[in-house]
Amino acid sequence: MEWMGAQKTYSGPNPPRVILGHRSPGLWPILAWAMMLARTAPAVAQSAADCLGCHSDPSLVLERQGCTLSLHVDPSRFGRSVHKDLDCVACHTGLNPDEVPHGRRIEAVNCLNCHEDAPAAHRFHAAMAAATGNDGGPGVSCKECHGTHEVASPTSSGAKYHSSRLASSCGECHEPVARQYLESEHGRAFSAGVQGAPGCLTCHRHPITDARTAGEPVERKVAQEKICLSCHLDNPEVRARMGPEAGFIAGYEKSVYGNALLMGNAAAVNCVDCHGSHEMKKGFEPTARVNRRQIPETCGACHTAIALEFERSVHGTAARRGIAEEPVCTDCHGEHNILSPDDSRSPVAPANVSAQVCSPCHSSLRLSEKYGLASDRFRTFADSYHGLAIREGSLEVASCASCHGAHGTLPSSDPASRVHKSNLASTCGACHPGASARFGAGRVHVLLADAQEPVLYWIATAYLAVIVVVVGDMFLHNLLDFVRKAHGHLQARSEGAVEEPAGRALYLRMTLGERLQHGALVLSFTLLVVTGFML
Asked: Nearest 5°: CA angle at 283, between 278 and 287?
């Protein structure tokens, strides 16, 4: 054995693989004395203070296969740990503390000897279910997260995994996700100390990932939705700070997507699909997935064909230009309470789409003045046969979407438009088989004004005049007849005259021709009422 500098090494034909040494020779006399004492003194369990007699030296190192490992334990850090009252041999088992060096191979510390519930308590790392407790890769190794001799309780304000430090601590491994979270609405609220703001474990202690739900997307999506509602609906502190009412948030479970998800449809979207997970932001932020300008892209992630159709439409083109008033998916279908078009309560149901979806924009004087739109389109439709039939509850009559299309609406000047003059025959023929090109030759949205349709205007005016004159004359005739008869009766009573009884003879009031004329009038009027032909 020989000395080389400040390092203790061995010479000879078979040097050992593990070599214990110090960066400073000052401790070697003490270590030699300890070794001699160990040979003569009886073996006794050593306390933490006994072990720190050597391991508190920062120069204590171990060389193994060309690598130098520090064996230093900082007494001050160990004194602040949750294990400060434990003897070293409580964790470092399988060695004789009286042997220096303690052995060629030291048994690894097994945290599960004490912390048997660690795998269950750390389910947010799915691999912990197979953890051995003595080492492993990220997500399994206790010391990778909690350290070694400086382990602190997560409830301690200065602990690495205190709830206030979770984002940065978890971010050491999950850096991209942590960055997204800290920039999100949740992350900003958490950093500001807002009561109820979610941290990493608020969500991830529940089975909301594929690894935790055995790859079952339905279970994962349902669990994610329940986690979101547990704060946004069930937590009064969080709900009080929310803009939408509780009913608006709860509307999701009553929507077509919520019902489908709860029925086991894995393709149904949940909160995370629309709002995002770690990157969730409020809708007014330009980068939010539910911002108006991002809505077509968000919905298009599932509704690909419809999104492409909308993108080419007059509405989609205007929306891409940044026109704030231009409708996007949620303006027509709703947000959390989206219902199927087959549901009579849905705004896009055939009976509702014209009045509830199209009318608010196409009847707006503000929008018509700002963008040069005709503001009479819904009024003229409502006065037409189609509009009146819808008001009476018909589910088969044409609505705005029946003619103009729903997602692919184009101006009538576009040759691809369903209401372009070259396409009217096929559009009308969808309801009226055999419709020719002349079927849609007339104007559709007709406003009976002298300047627009003078012929129809004067016909309608004359028609109304005839009605007023005929009905008015009849009313005046009956009124005058009633006055004359009432005056006669009053005069006869005042003079004491006795009315002669009416005779029993029959009088012919109308000739055969007059009866036939009245019959034809009744028949034509009945047909008019039943068929609505003149409408």
From this structure: 60
Q: Measure Cα distances from 35 to 32, 90, 458 in Å.
A: 5, 22, 123
Q: Which DSSP letter does residue 43 get? A: P
Q: What is the CA radius of gyration of the chain?
A: 44
Residue with tokens 């054995």, as numbered in its chain: 1
157: its two tokens: 């304000």
Q: State whether residue 150 is helix, strand or coil.
A: coil
pLDDT of res. 452: 64
- Note whether 293 and 327 are within 8 A (CB): no
Closest CA to 184 of 282, 292, 284: 282
3-class SS of residue 214: coil
Non-local (6+) Cβ contacts of 232 within 8 A are 238, 239, 242, 249
Strand-pairing partners, residue 68, are 63
Query: Where are the alpha helices (H) located in 255-358, listed in sequence order?
Result: 256-262, 271-275, 295-300, 304-312, 314-320, 329-333
Q: Which of 442, 338, 332 is nearest to 384 (CA)?
A: 442
**pLDDT class of 535 with cuts at 50, 70, 90:** very low
Strands (E) across 134-188 are located at none
Residues 525-529 have a mean pLDDT of 83
| pTM of the complete model | 0.72
Q: What is the pLDDT of residues 208-239, one digit of tens each?
A: 888 777 778 899 999 999 999 999 988 888 88
Contacts of 467 (CB under 8 A, 6+ apart): none
Cβ(402)–Cβ(429) below 8 Å:
no
Sheet holding 18-22, edge to edge: 18-22, 60-64, 67-70
Q: What is the pLDDT of residue 45?
A: 52
The rounded distance, in Å, linking the Cα atoms of 361 and 444 is 19
User: Coil, strand or helix: which one is 19?
Assistant: strand
